[in-house]
Amino acid sequence: MQLLKKLFKRYFIDAMGAMAQGLFASLLIGTIFKALGMIPKLGFLAEIGGYAQAMAGPAMAAAIAASLKAHPLVIFSSAAVGYAANLLGGKGGPFAVFLIAIAAAEVGMLVSKKTRVDIIVTPFVTILVGGLLSILVAPYIDILVGYISDFIGWASLQAPLVAGIIVSVVIGICLTLPISSAAICAGLLLTGSLAVEGSSEGLAIAGAAAVAGCCAQMVGFAVISFRENRWGGLLSQGIGTSMLQMPNIVRHPQIWIAPTLASAITGPLAVCVFGLRMYGAAINSGMGTCGLLGPIGLILGWLDKENGYPVPVTALNWVGLVLVCFVLPALLSFLINELLRKLGWVKDGYMKLDAD
After folding, report:
1. Which of 30, 88, 178, 318 sits in a 20 to 30 Å window from 288, CA-based?
2. Same structural domain for residues 159 and 288?
3. Residue 4 CB burial class (10 angstroms; 0-12, 13-18, ≥19)
4. Which of 219, 156, 145 is nearest to 182 (CA)?
5. Is the Cβ–Cβ distance between 270 and 210 less than 8 Å?
6. Closest alpha carbon to 207 in 266, 294, 272
7. Could you give the count of Cα atoms lying within 13 Å of 243 in the half-sphere of its Cβ?
8. What are phi and psi of 294, to 5 degrees?
9. Is the distance from CB of 46 to CB of 259 less than 8 angstroms?
10. Which is it for the CA torsion 293, 170, 348, 23, positive or negative?
11. Shortest CA distance to 248 belongs to which of 238, 256, 257, 258?
12. Mean of the pLDDT values across residues 135-154?
């Protein structure tokens, strides 16, 4: 039992937490740079953001190896492993990196510092194991995540109320899990933009519901964990990623209830009450408040005449945008979480982020 607890902490707490930090320091901070690059005369920031985003795989893998207390050569070699796993893992890239980087780092440690030609042997073994696993395993992770995409595609064809609930909840969960909600939304073309072939009103509805679900997860966790993580946690989760909570979710799954229930409420409100539709870039549907790109995507869809937004934008749309993306996720998650606290399901410290 002690061995299982040790392995659980090593892989699902330490390694997963490090992976989330690696993702934040590359893909997500790059997304924030790209958002800032939309400001006139600051386009160079978008270019910098692109460089950061491209390093997501290497950053996650190196962070994982470092969390496992790997030797320097194993950590450095893991960068190549992360690139391959993230690329070949497609929509499941982060999850592929998580599994494959752990395996490559552990095998690399078996040979590290064991020979006189360590500078050759350690990188060779680490990259060979990680590269082969990336080629053999990562594509199947992409296929597995594809089943989630198929389900969301089916949900987007249902009545707005049903689509609003299902898409909001599932995409929101995907955003917090180590898989790419943005890639899923981009692959499913969750936008009604006329500039995108195959788009439709149903996809525009699903895109808006996806934005609501992602915002609910990020803003929800940022607010309900404020007493543990204060302002740093509010910002890192609220405009970064709720995936930072994954190690805590593994230990205490009940902390996921409040943001998920909030997404089940805000999704249908977004599409049925406030009439929100996504006519911006489909990838923005899966970004939530990361760099504020979810709300920005909705707004750009309204303003760009080439997108073919079908109706005039009203005050109700603008009020709905603010409520669905920021106010309601915070309020609903807080109230639901307070109830869970009174029931004894959630306690102080359950959502504390690792500061190391």
Report:
1. 88
2. yes
3. exposed
4. 145
5. no
6. 294
7. 32
8. -65, -60
9. no
10. negative
11. 256
12. 91
Structure tokens at 196: 């995108």
Cα–Cα dist 82/130, whole Å:
8
Report d(CA 133, CA 135) in Å as an integer. Answer: 5
Q: How far apart are alpha carbons 229 and 354 in whole angstroms? A: 9
Whether 314 and 259 share a structural domain: yes
**To the nearest whole percent, how much of the chain has pLDDT over 90?**
66
Question: Is residue 356 classed exposed, middle or buried when 0-12, 13-18 and 19+ CB atoms within 10 A define those classes?
Answer: exposed
What is the predicted pLDDT for the residue at 32? 84
On whether both 86 and 168 belong to a single domain, the answer is: no
Q: In residues, how long is the chain?
A: 356
pTM of this prediction? 0.84
> 158 with 260: CB under 8 angstroms?
no
In a domain, 351, yes or no: no
Cα–Cα distance, 176 to 324 (Å, whole number): 18
Tell me: the pLDDT tens digits for 321-349? Answer: 999 999 999 999 999 999 999 999 999 99
Tokens representing 346?
């959630």
- Residue 19 near residue 35 (C-beta atoms within 8 A): no
Whole-angstrom distance, CA of residue 203 vs CA of residue 176: 22
Please check whether residue 122 is in contact with residue 112, taking contact to mean a CB–CB distance below 8 angstroms: yes
> Using an 8 Å Cβ cutoff, are 122 and 73 in contact?
yes
In order of 105, 141, 170, 185, the CA distances from 150 in angstroms are 33, 14, 12, 11
